[in-house]
Amino acid sequence: MIISGPNAGGKSVCLKTVGLLQYMLQCGLLVPASPNSEFTLFSRLFIDIGDEQSLENDLSTYSSHLLNMKYFIKNSNSETLFLIDEFGTGTEPQLGASIAEATLEQLNKKQAFGVITTHYSNLKLAAERLEGLQNGAMLFDTEKMQPLYILKIGKPGSSFAFEIAKKIGFPSFVLQNAKKKSGGKHVRFDQQLQQLETDKLAIDKKQKQLDSADETLSELVEKYTSLLKDLSKTKKQIIEDAKQEASVIIENSNKAIEKTIREIKEAQANKEATKTIRKKLEEKKIQLKKEKTEDEEPEIIETDDELRMGDFVSVIDTDITGEIIIIEDDEALINVNDIKLRISLDKLEKSSAKQSQKTKRSSSASIIHEINKKVAHFELSIDLRGKRSEEALYLLQKYIDEALLLSMKEVSILHGKGFGILRDNIREYLRSVDEVKHFEDAPLNMGGTGITRVYFK
Fold it and tell me: Distance (Å, rounded) from C-alpha 133 to C-alpha 115?
């Protein structure tokens, strides 16, 4: 792994931490790491950290590094771990970078494991080019201009040399001159790394927002699921109470009838008493019949199957009932407990106002279930590319209606760029929708003028 990034950004500390943890493991000590971490044992540990120049041995900084590299190349194998800090420093930068790259390729051929820190661009590019190598970057906050001390594996990091110099008040004219002398190619490469760093932080921030929205949606689904369970439990309780009440009524009626029959037998020859008792029995029968008629009064449904505004209808194979508000083509907009639903006419059948009232509770539960299911499967974007304007606006109208019904806050419309005709027609329609708060182009990196984002009130 080739770790790059700004000065004082934590590269050397990261390198030394790897070495310390590995040495603890080699010594049989417990390692302070995540339970998901994986380690292995090495037969050889090679380390090149710090300045080992020596007057006694007549060694310069660069010479001491070269002697270490020579030893590493000669003795490395697939069971070797090497750690090198500031790889290739101590001599003329371009030559030092070339020697460092060649050394790195040789260690890679020997299949040795290693971690190095560097500022050299050629080593960062080599990690992208060669199999067995990978980049790692110490993250840097480009807004506050300070290191984050976080290692991000998979991409190289920028040194932020000019930005750090500017932050500490280095003369601007000197920095401008330095940029010219460093060469435009190198500066552009470093600027691209900085832009990648900025984009990555923005994407991470957006991902956190998406995770939060996903968590909120999960909570809503759980809430609706719990509500459905409560409604089902309440429904069962109501049915059970009704059965118990009916059982009590039947039991009391049977007792009254049995008492009347017994009185008839006891009265025997007393015709007047018998007549009076029979009259009581008939009155009791009439009362029971009346109560039964009130509970089981049949619904009177018109035989005319044609649906009109104001008709009470039910959705076939469901418990949903409501009143027709308006009929458009082959669809009807119906009012179900103050909730507006657009349903195809072939899925509706007439019902009575009384039947609609009796199924109010079950309709509410069915609507909540349907809304819950639609929210879970609703697409937050619609693709209208290649559609004619009339067809696109028809599909868009149905899509916007469904989004408003499900209380969506934001949707995206993919219409493409082209000559902008479809885009203009779509936006003209959006201006006519009162529930639309505003709309705008998507960010450049997410479609730009080819996508319109719509926000609802």
Answer: 10
What percent of the chain lies above the pLDDT cut of 90? 28
Give the amino acid at 223.
K
Domains 2-182 and 381-456 equal at CATH topology level: no
Q: Please, which residues have CB within 8 angstroms of residue 271's CB and are 6 or more apart in sequence?
A: none
- Two structure tokens written together for 336: 């179900």
Residues 319 and 362 sit within 8 Å (Cβ to Cβ):
yes
- Sheet arrangement for strand 339-344: 339-344, 331-336, 321-328, 312-315, 348-350
> What is the rounded end-to-end Cα distance, in angstroms, of the chain?
50
Which residue has 């008939």 as its token pair? 282
Three-state secondary structure call for residue 342: strand
SS3 312: strand
- DSSP annotation of 140 reads E
Where do we find the tokens 């369970």?
A: 229
Sign of the dihedral through C-alpha 254, 259, 260, 265: positive
Write down the domain spans for the chain. 2-182, 221-295, 312-372, 381-456
Task: Find the helix or strand (DSSP H, E) in which 318 lies.
Answer: none
* Cα–chain center distance at 358: 40
Task: Give the separation between CA 167 and CA 164, rounded to whole angstroms.
Answer: 5
pTM above 0.85, yes or no: no
Q: Give burial (CB, 10 Å; 0-12/13-18/19+) of 144.
A: exposed
H or E segment to which residue 230 belongs: helix 184-267
Backbone angles phi, psi at 241, to 5 degrees: -60, -40
C-alpha–C-alpha distance, residues 286 and 30, integer Å:
89
What's the pLDDT score for residue 58? 44
The bridge status of strand 312-315 relative to strand 44-48 is unpaired
How many CB atoms sit inside 10 A of residue 219's CB? 10
> For the segment 353-400, what is each residue's pLDDT rounded down to a tens digit?
555 555 555 555 555 556 667 777 788 899 999 888 889 999 999 999
SS3 80: strand
Sheet of strand 436-441, all strands in order from the earlier edge strand to the far edge:
381-383, 410-414, 451-456, 436-441
* 147-162 as b/e: b if 16+ CB within 10 A: beeebbeebbbbbbbb
The domain at 381-456 falls in which architecture? 2-Layer Sandwich (3.30)
Q: Residue 127: what are its φ and ψ, rounded to 5°?
A: -65, -30
Helix H or strand E segment including 65 = helix 61-75
State the fold for domain 2-182: Rossmann fold (3.40.50)
Burial 346-374 (b: 16+ CB within 10 A, else e): eebebbbeeebeebeeebbbbbbbebbee
The helices-and-strands tally (H runs, E runs) of the chain is 12, 15
Dmax (CA) for the chain in angstroms is 145
> What pLDDT is recorded for position 79?
96
